[in-house]
């Protein structure tokens, strides 16, 4: 087996590379009936130019997560840093000015102002931000409307447009101040599939021209068009390697694997500690030369490969390769908890025993 380069989606970009960075973010809503943890210790980094989709069941925390990035909502604990600015400490006023320069937001229900023409809707954020000269705002707005195919209806009121056209106008409005980042929360949730495809084509083109896009969607086929698919389940962000390696597991199953994993970096030559399961993120694991048991797996495990051990001590037969190894591992007690919480996950994984992402 060759030591292939790791699939990008197995690991997140490092903090130093991140345009969007969430560190230890919790969101706890207080309600009369008690507290509710909508986000649980989210660690997330997104690099400039990435197209990232956010998927998960209704109520899993997708909107709450993107509202942290836009500053529409604030974390209860943790840090949110976007394009170099720590959002936690900004006042509401400072936040809306910051947002105007840095982010375009697209919502499921368009949210155009009904009394203004489509063109005026697109010009409004320019008037708020004052980034472009007043004399050039109208022609800039018209150019954006041309880009989304709406120049012919620029002077109409939003109500005269179809849903798809209104969403395209909302995208033009989000681009008014040429922000580096676009955040879209279920942008196609209210559109038929043909119109949704048109919106996706606009998004893909924007990403090709350097925009960073974070898009929440229910639709898995749309989510797959992104560079990276995030899965959020009951307020937990599933480790990207779990999503990439076992995309067909249920979200509940992914959550169980996520909860019980250990993240470990091994220096070159270091022995893998006793484990029931291991997934290699970076580097490789090399087997020893002796075979303590006739049927023991003796192939090297390259980045992207995973393996289950019948007995935890058998893991010690593997050592990190010359470049070291970065692995996720599940030890005996993690495996036991997994077996209790989600016996189906264990059975599914055991039926494969090992593989390559
Ligand atoms: P999604 O977008 O994935 O459907 P949300 O992020 O909107 O989910 O909500 C996640 C959970 O947080 C839901 O259970 C929701 O009821 C709860 N929630 C969201 N906003 C509030 C709020 N302002 N107060 C109380 N609970 C909230
Ligand atoms: Mg939502």
UniProtKB/TrEMBL annotation:
InterPro entries: AAA+_ATPase, ABC_transporter-like_ATP-bd, ABC_transporter-like_CS, ABC_transpr_LolD-like, MacB-like_ATP-bd, P-loop_NTPase
Superkingdom assignment: Bacteria
GO molecular function annotations of the record: ATP binding
Upper lineage: Bacteria, Bacillati, Chloroflexota, Anaerolineae, Anaerolineales
SUPFAM superfamilies membership: P-loop containing nucleoside triphosphate hydrolases
Entry keyword set: ATP-binding, Nucleotide-binding, Transport
Transmembrane portions of the chain: none
Name by which UniProt lists this protein: ABC transporter ATP-binding protein
């Amino acid at each position: 087996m060759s030591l292939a380069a790791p699939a990008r989606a197995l690991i997140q970009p490092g903090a130093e590379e991140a345009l969007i960075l969430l560190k230890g973010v919790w969101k706890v809503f207080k309600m009369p009936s008690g507290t509710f943890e909508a986000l649980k210790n989210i660690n997330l980094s997104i690099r400039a130019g990435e197209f990232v989709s956010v998927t998960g069941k209704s109520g899993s925390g997708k909107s709450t997560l993107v509202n942290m990035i836009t500053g529409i909502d604030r974390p209860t604990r943790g840090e949110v840093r976007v394009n170099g600015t720590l959002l936690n400490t900004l006042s509401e006023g400072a936040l809306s000015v910051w947002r105007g320069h840095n982010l375009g937001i697209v919502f499921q229900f368009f949210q155009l102002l009904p009394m203004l023409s489509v063109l005026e809707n697109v010009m409004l954020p320019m008037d708020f931000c004052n980034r472009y000269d007043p004399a050039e705002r109208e022609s800039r707005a018209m150019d954006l409307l041309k880009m989304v195919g709406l120049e012919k209806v620029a002077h109409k009121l939003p109500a005269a447009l179809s849903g798809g056209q209104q969403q395209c106008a909302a995208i033009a409005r989000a681009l008014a101040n040429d922000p580096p980042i676009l955040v879209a929360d279920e942008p196609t949730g209210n559109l038929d599939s043909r119109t949704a495809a048109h919106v996706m084509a606009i998004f893909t083109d924007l990403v090709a021209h350097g925009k960073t896009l974070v898009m929440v969607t229910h639709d898995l086929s749309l989510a797959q068009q992104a560079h990276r698919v995030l899965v959020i389940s009951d307020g937990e962000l599933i480790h990207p390697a779990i999503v990439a390696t076992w995309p067909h597991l249920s979200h509940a199953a992914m959550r169980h694997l996520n909860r019980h994993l250990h993240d470990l970096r091994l220096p070159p030559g270091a022995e893998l500690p006793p484990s029931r399961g291991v997934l290699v993120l970076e580097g490789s694991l090399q087997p020893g030369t002796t075979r303590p048991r006739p049927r023991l797996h003796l192939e090297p495990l390259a980045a992207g490969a995973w393996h289950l051990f019948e007995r935890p001590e058998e893991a010690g037969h593997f050592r990190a390769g010359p470049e070291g190894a970065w692995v996720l591992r599940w030890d005996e007690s993690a495996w036991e908890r997994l077996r209790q919480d989600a016996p189906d996950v264990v059975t599914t994984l055991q039926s494969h025993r090992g593989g390559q992402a």
